Amino acid sequence: MSDLVAPALGLRQGRAEITRFARSREAVVFTVLFPVLMIVVFGSIFDWDIAPGVPFTQYFVVGMMGAGLMATGFQNLAIQIPMERDRGELKRLRGTPMPPSVYFMGKVLMVLAVSAMLTVVLLVFAVAFYGVRLPGDAQRWFTFGWVSLLGVTACTLCGIAFSSLARTARSGSAVATPVALVLQFISGVFFEFSQLPHWMQQIAALFPLKWICQGLRSVFLPAELAAGEPAGSWELGRVALVLTVWCVLGLVLCLTTFRWTTKRDG
Fold first, then answer.
1. pTM of the full predicted structure?
2. Using an 8 Å Cβ cutoff, are 76 and 159 in contact?
3. What tens digit of pLDDT does each residue of 69-93 get?
4. What string of DSSP letters covers 150-206?
5. Count of domains for the chain
6. Domain limits at 126?
7. What are phi and psi of 50, to 5 degrees?
8. Partners of 51 in the beta sheet?
């Protein structure tokens, strides 16, 4: 197949995946509106400042953006792919001349589109109703870009790899959702990370979400709050390193564990 044909097919597959996502009301509501609802709930309950002039909402919105990247990349794919495998869609695709890369390109493009939409919705809502302040310089926006890109890439690859653990379509949600929820609670999404027990911080540091949230905090929170991080700084170099390692690890797991058929299909 021509080198130009595969990318064109990938774009077409990406449009199909985005359309399928948009037509699924449950997926749209859970992925896009649920984080907004969480901001309303937590913003109403925790209305104190974490520092002079810095409301908790500013901190929480950052955590929800990180959780949103994980939800679209990891959780959605870890649930969606087993459903497609169980229905025999992957088996049929594997039997066509279409390169396997086209299928994965479609998933990646869908995740990127949904992640961008979710981030915009969260920022617009938080700025409009909670007075969240946006970064005022190009350097912070650049950091926002590379942290988000590395983060969503790591989560996407891990989601594709994790999808092989679900034996049936029904078990996909049961396997992926608890993992996502636990990581959110220990990674500084719902609570200030520095207030979590030390052992919990150590466990969270092994996974991407903690570093995604930490990188995003460096963008949206004042520089002086870096002193409240476990290492006393934002550690952006380590953020980049850990997320890159997870991208590589996720790719290796995808290549070695991904299954096109269910076990009953052989």
1. 0.93
2. yes
3. 999 999 999 999 999 999 999 999 8
4. HHHHHHHHHHHHHGGG-SSHHHHHHHHHHHHHHHHHHTTSSS-GGGS-HHHHHHHTT
5. 1
6. 5-265
7. -85, -15
8. 54
